[in-house]
Amino acid sequence: MDEVEVVVAHSERATLRVGDVFLKVDADQARIDAEVEAISLAPVPTPQILWCKPPVLAIAALPGTTLGRLGGPATGSPAAWAAAGAAIRKLHDAPLPPRRGRAGRSSGALAAELDDECDALVATGILPADLVARNRQVAEAALRPWTPAFTHGDLQIAHVFVDGDEVTGIIDWSEAGQGDALYDLATFTLGHEEHLDDVLAGYGTGVDLEVIHAWWSLRSLLAVRWLSEHGFDPFAPGCEVDVLRARM
């Protein structure tokens, strides 16, 4: 019997690995339903669903390895990153799924949430006021009208698997749905700006770099306090706070 590996765990959800099976335990059945639906609709390689008995979803492991993780070294050739960009473009060009995803929050609601979070970051002393103010200014470019696309919603590089220069699968679809395509691209390249050109070589045209930079700031500002409260370290080298400092 293989040992049980805790892949990630916090108060909202946990993922365990036993051999070649991943067990995702989620307190919100809507996220499980969204993941099952997105996997069935996505036109890119996805993991096989073995069974689903809420609050648990069992999926098969994917071949290959991830391109890295936030705060750690990135791996893969430029061609592998370009292949990931091409897969992301294929997803974004697919017919829209029925529900709105994490990347589909309205600009008004997002601006209000961002302003509240910026105030909290400064009031609690988690981040200095000048760092927050500068990144709030940069983030403004993301608060604009956008054309809905089929988005993943949490497209961290740790969620994309490759074998050589081929994408073998994309995992963790619980935040998928209609949303802003540039949110996905920004999430995928967060903390690994050096690979953005490779990704865009595969993705193609129609990308506003100012908006990518804005999403880096916006996503990081919204994440810092949550990560700190759930046992993660956004101050670790290469992580969210370093992303914010790079905009100064």
Structure description:
With 248 residues, the protein is α+β, with helices and mostly antiparallel strands. The protein has a single domain, classed as Aminoglycoside 3'-phosphotransferase, Chain: A, domain 2 (Alpha-Beta Complex). Helix content is 40%, strand content 18%. It is built from 8 helices and 10 strands. The chain has a 5-stranded antiparallel sheet, with helices on one face. Strand 4 and strand 5 form a beta hairpin. InterPro entries: AGP_Transferase (IPR051678), Aminoglycoside_PTrfase (IPR002575), Kinase-like_dom_sf (IPR011009). This is Aminoglycoside phosphotransferase.
What is this structure, in a nutshell?
The protein is an alpha+beta fold. It is built from 8 helices and 10 strands.
Write the layout of secondary structure elements.
Elements: E1 4-9, E2 13-18, E3 21-26, H1 29-41, E4 49-53, E5 56-60, E6 65-66, H2 78-92, H3 107-123, H4 129-139, E7 149-151, E8 160-163, E9 166-170, E10 177-179, H5 181-189, H6 196-203, H7 209-229, H8 240-245
Antiparallel strand pairs: 1-2, 2-3, 3-5, 4-5, 6-8, 7-10, 8-9
Helix pairs in contact: 2-6, 3-4, 3-7, 4-7, 5-7
The CATH class name reads: Alpha Beta
Number of domains: 1
Tell me the CATH superfamily. Answer: Aminoglycoside phosphotransferase (APH), C-terminal lobe
The biggest beta sheet, please?
A: 5 strands, antiparallel
Overall, the morphology is globular
CATH fold-level assignment: Aminoglycoside 3'-phosphotransferase, Chain: A, domain 2
What ranges have pLDDT less than 50 throughout 5 or more consecutive residues? none
SSE run:
EEEHEEEHHHEEEEHHHH
- Count of helical segments? 8
- Class from helix and strand fractions: alpha+beta
Number of strands: 10
The fraction of residues in strands falls at 15-25%
Mean pLDDT: 94
State the strand order across the main sheet.
1-2-3-5-4
Separation, N- and C-terminal Cα atoms:
51 Å
What value does the Rg take, in angstroms? 18 Å
Helix content estimate: 40-55%
CATH architecture: Alpha-Beta Complex
